[in-house]
Amino acid sequence: MSGHILAHDHPEVIFSFKKPEYGFSQHRRGTNMENSSYSHPSLLTLGFGQMMEIKYFYSALVLLCFVVIVVSNSAVISAIMMHRSLQEPMFIFVAFLCFNGLYGSLIFYPILFVNLLSKTQVISYVGCIIQVFCNHTYIGCELTILAVMSFDRYVCICNPLRYNSIMSLATVLKLISAAWLYVIILITILVMLTIRLPLCSSVIQKIYCDNWSVVRLSCIDTTVNNVYGLLITGAIIGIIPVLILVSYARILWVCMQSSKVFRAKALQTCTPHLITLAYFVADILFEILLPRFPSTMLPYGLRILMSVQNFVIAPILHPLIYGYKLREIRLRVLQMLGAKQITDLKNNL
Length: 349
Prior knowledge:
By secondary structure, the chain is mainly α. Helices cover about 70% and strands about 0% of the residues. It has a single domain (about 5-15, about 40-349), classed as Up-down Bundle (Rhopdopsin 7-helix transmembrane proteins). InterPro entries: GPCR1_Superfamily_Member, GPCR_Rhodpsn, GPCR_Rhodpsn_7TM, Olfact_rcpt.
């Protein structure tokens, strides 16, 4: 989604090599470039930099985060799948949100862990492209699922009498399928446009692959990638949050005209969604804007932290918000974990 960053914003990528690589000539940007024979490097080097000085600490931290994410999200998903009382639209959407968190974590953490313990931090070109596709579909689906959840809350609060007829199981499955397909189609086109680019360098500036990190390695014109990057950014980062905010604005309007009890219950349900949306969009915007500023503007550690928080905060936060905030899921998870005297817990939680 960050493919709109212009390659000429980073001239050091193009002119920092004394010898041409991968069979290219130094006049790579000539008019006959498009008709030449291009190739891709078999391996790409990732930019771990100072992290390798304390790599065992980061390795332990990565492993801990991965285990917490897998256990917590799996517990919420299992609780919803195993108990029929939780198989309602709101809980089904929560399950898919947790599933998306698992999906993003499985493509991010294992590769990161292996590279931290390796002598050289590399990834194959094919592996990098796969990670680009998975990382961007994970981020995009996070937003589209939140949009579907906001629609569910809008129908529940603003049209309570028609909720069961509108949000049937068939409708829920259609909404989830649409949320995934919308992002998959957009990201597939994005990745196909990236694959066509020849690469004149093999150094990724981040600890994982994203679309912009690969596009910036190309020496040919990337106007098509830049334009489509802007379009896809608007389609996902622009339109989706606006739709979510419109839904919650309508919900807020209805709540203001309702009783205090109804207003408190509605806000309790909607607040986690808004918190998730706010930090997720803020981090994506940070990722888009950061490359436009000098790399020395922020400390190295802070840059790394900000670049990975969507893979850390969101998958950990979802089970905490929806697993412990929503009483029904919390009780079922405690039952699965073998908690005793559930009757007493119901009165205390």
